[in-house]
Design brief:
By secondary structure, the protein is of the alpha+beta class. The strands form nine sheets. The chain has a seven-stranded mixed beta sheet, sandwiched between helices. Strands 7, 8, 9, 16, 17 and 18 form a six-stranded mixed beta sheet that branches. A five-stranded mixed beta sheet has the order 19-20-30-31-34. A hairpin with a 5-residue loop joins strand 16 (286-294) and strand 17 (300-311). Helix 9 (356-374) runs parallel beside helix 17, helix 12 packs parallel to helix 13 (512-536) and helix 16 (652-671) packs across helix 17. The mean pLDDT is 97. The structure holds dioxothiomolybdenum(VI) ion. The site of dioxothiomolybdenum(VI) ion has 10 residues, from loops.
Length: 758
């Protein structure tokens, strides 16, 4: 695979290597559980062995007798604190240790604290619970699930979007399809395990935990513990994979904090990979029915998308990806409907492009089927259904470069060499197929604060309570400051991942680069203004150049006529050694309380389909080649090309890396990834990295990322569209499309397996 970062084109920043790259590869970028903590005690969770019912007795004697055991926090011991909540900050309202009810398999029933990890683990295994057991409902087809419309039931899904008269248009359509698709349960397996380390110094609580939302967690943890948020500090400097799994706070954090208070010393709880399957969030299985009606010329007249999603008994978690699918093409009429299916499961949660990954999988598969019905090239079919305005509200797109993406991807891929007839391309024993799909992700931003300090020797420090979850946000925030203040990136340091820093929103929804860079930009501009005024003012080194256009370059203030004053001379004139500015950015359309909410850890999202003026999305086109062995049916993906347009690209290296990672994950979704559920016990079966299949290097041969230039001033001051989640949308559908092209077999349920093609 060619590893070179793409050369920047128009509106793209340099491929600066991550400023924390050396720390990462030398193991110095410690994850929260790696940070040295004196006198730490070890916590190990004990979890339920049933999925539904209640605890009738908890027998802790044998566990307590293990030498080294300090304490056991169990059911009833959390009465003094408030229950966790479900929402954007809290993962679930299921409140283990608050009551005896069991809502899912593997629910926390106790936390053992001991002098050593081994003692805690041994004791946790010796805890015995007696249960009043009931028959659980595992998933869609289980008896006892409760189905309800998502609209009105979930704060995450307001309404079933529609446009025109779908029923009439679909009935009248000359060509139509009506198909069902499904995506499986998928679990987060970040390399860094989930962990909480907590300790108290008087009233002050410090928590080291991998988090995508330190400010939100500070507030939510303080609420649960009934203490002042000012007394809570969440520290999460480096994270080993997040993708949404470390976004909402789970019930564990407060339990560990309570344990630390009881034993009077720091407690560290690292969750085993096996336990993480139940005690963390995951991507729930989905089902879809898609109906598309079109004229013979290929113009779509009717689009219907119904979705069903599994969630827990208590929480209305829903992704409702119809907001993106219903705005994808020029449909004429639209009908959508999303339903919740409550089962005896832990509450699902965000996983990279939560709504788009499953819903666009269904849409793009259906688009491919329709192209086949019409006898049309699938790229051409997208082209002729390219909308002028989005179909639901009739708003313009802030920018939309989808067709450019298809054009550039098709050229690089050699799409013109694709022979249309199914099964017609072959290379020896291998059946060859080529497929395509569209990627889409909403472009949002949220209020964000940042502090920037420039010293007279040209050093810059950027601080913002955002999170380096592997995206390179530290680096791009540093690049923004380096560029605006005219210094080399080597002189910039960036601090993130601590709730004592200026607050930033949750690092989710691909909003971080846009939000943080917009705040950094604002702080830098305030510094520039002061420096410029001093430089051209009375006694300044550029006195008399008041009308000149000023810039900062190479640690100097320069005029458009070529005059220049060194930074140190400007600082001398001001008789100061450093300038520091604190800036608060609020996206257009923010409510009057938006900044207050930022400090309270409740950052408002703006953009996507929510704005008055336009809808804002980033797009991409993904083309793949599959090869299927004609004897063994082994499926290979030797080639994948993705072209993406996402406004200003801050750094072509980190952008490419994000998009590439997304596509690789997409191949995993297409061919490998699924959590199997034991239907009788509502229990996850393949809960470790040995049985949970993900792609490895040998699975991905040639992968190309094309960055398509795009300028969009409407999205945010930085002009950035997030792309952290864009890459893995559409990939699985493109693979399914290629598998059909190679074999004539349409696989509508992920993952696509050898046995599906026999
Ligand atoms: Mo992402 S799933 O919005 O952390």
């Amino acid at each position: 695979m060619n590893q070179a970062a793409p050369a920047p084109k128009e509106n793209m920043g340099n491929p600066v290597p991550r400023i924390d790259a050396r720390l990462k590869v030398t193991g110095q970028a410690g994850y929260p559980a790696d940070l040295a903590t004196a006198n730490v005690a070890y916590g190990v969770l004990a979890t339920s062995t049933i999925a539904k019912g209640s605890i009738s007795a908890l027998r802790l004697e044998r566990a307590r007798a293990v030498p080294g055991v300090l304490d056991i926090v169990s059911v009833g011991d959390m009465d003094e604190v408030d229950k966790p909540e479900f929402g954007n900050t809290g993962a679930s309202s299921i409140a283990p240790l608050h009551d005896k009810t069991i809502f899912h398999d593997g629910q926390i029933i106790a936390l053992v604290v001991a002098e050593t990890f081994e003692a805690a683990a041994e004791a946790a295994m010796l805890i015995r619970a007696d249960y009043a057991q009931e028959t659980p409902s595992a998933s869609f087809d289980s008896r006892g699930t409760r189905i309800e419309p998502a609209a009105g039931k979930s704060p995450m899904y307001k309404e079933n979007l529609k446009a025109g008269d779908f029923d009439a248009a679909y009935a009248a359509a000359a060509v139509k399809i009506d198909q069902k698709y499904s995506t499986p349960t998928q679990h987060h397996n970040p390399i860094e395990l989930f962990s909480t380390t907590a300790w108290w110094q008087g009233d002050q609580l410090t928590v080291h935990e991998p988090s995508q939302n330190v400010t939100g967690w500070k507030t939510e943890l303080a609420r649960q513990l009934k203490i002042d948020p000012a007394n809570v500090r969440i520290v999460s400097p480096y994270i080993g994979g997040a993708f949404g799994s470390k976004g909402p706070m789970t019930a564990r954090t407060a339990i560990v904090a309570v344990a630390a208070r009881r034993v009077g010393r720091p407690v560290r709880c690292v969750v085993s990979r096996l336990q993480a399957y139940d005690t963390q969030t995951y991507r729930a299985e989905t089902r879809h029915r898609i109906r598309i009606g079109a004229n013979r010329d290929g113009r779509i007249t009717a689009f219907g998308h119904e979705g069903w999603e599994v969630t827990s008994r208590l929480d209305p978690y829903v992704v409702g990806g119809t907001s993106a699918t219903s705005r994808m093409y020029n449909y004429g009429s639209v009908l959508t409907r999303v339903s919740l299916v409550h089962a005896d499961r832990n509450t699902p949660g965000y996983m990279r492009s939560p709504p788009e990954t499953p819903y666009v999988y269904a849409l793009e598969n259906a688009m491919d089927e329709m192209a086949v019905e019409l006898g049309m090239d699938p790229v051409e079919f997208r082209r002729i259904n390219e909308p002028e305005k989005e179909p639901i509200g009739g708003k313009p797109f802030s920018s939309r470069s989808l067709i450019k993406c298809y054009d550039q991807a098709a050229e690089a891929f050699g799409w013109s060499k694709r022979e249309a007839a199914v099964g017609s391309m072959r290379d020896g024993d291998w059946l060859v197929g080529m497929g395509c799909a569209t990627a889409i992700y909403p472009t949002a931003a949220a209020p964000c604060a940042a502090r920037v300090r420039l010293t007279d020797d040209g050093h810059v420090r950027v601080q913002s309570g955002s999170h380096e979850i592997g995206t390179g946000v530290r680096t791009v925030a540093g690049q923004m400051a380096a560029e605006r203040l005219g210094v080399d990136i080597d002189k910039v340091s960036v601090e993130m991942g601590d709730s004592t820093l200026p607050p930033a929103p949750v690092s989710g929804g691909s909003i971080s680069t846009a939000s943080v860079c917009s705040a950094v930009l604002k702080a830098c501009d305030a510094i520039r203004e002061k420096l410029f005024a001093a430089a051209v003012g009375e006694g300044g080194p550029l006195a008399g150049s008041g009308k000149a256009k000023l810039e900062m370059e190479k640690e100097a203030v320069v005029t458009d006529s070529g005059k220049s004053a060194r930074l140190s001379d400007v600082f001398n004139a001001m008789q100061i050694g450093a300038l520091e500015e604190y800036a608060e950015f609020a996206p257009k359309g923010s409510s009057p309380e938006a900044l207050k909410k930022l400090y309270a850890g409740q950052a408002e999202f703006h953009g996507g389909d929510q704005d008055e003026d336009s809808v804002k999305y980033a797009y991409g086109a993904e083309l793949v080649e599959v090869r299927i062995n004609s004897y063994t049916r082994e499926i290979r993906v030797p080639r994948i090309v993705g072209a993406f347009a996402a406004g200003r690209i801050m750094n072509t290296r980190t952008a490419r890396s994000q998009l590439m990672g997304g596509m690789i994950w997409g191949i995993g979704q297409a061919l490998h990834e699924a959590t199997e559920i034991d239907q009788r016990h509502a229990r996850y079966v393949n809960r470790d990295l040995q049985d949970y299949l993900v792609p490895v290097n040998a699975d991905i041969k040639q992968l190309e990322v094309i960055l398509v230039p795009e300028v969009d001033h409407a999205v945010n001051p930085a002009g950035v569209k997030g792309l952290g989640e864009l890459g893995n949308v559409g990939t699985a559908a493109a693979v399914a499309s290629a598998v059909y092209h190679a074999t004539g077999r349409r696989i509508r349920d992920l993952p696509i397996r050898i046995e599906d093609l026999i």
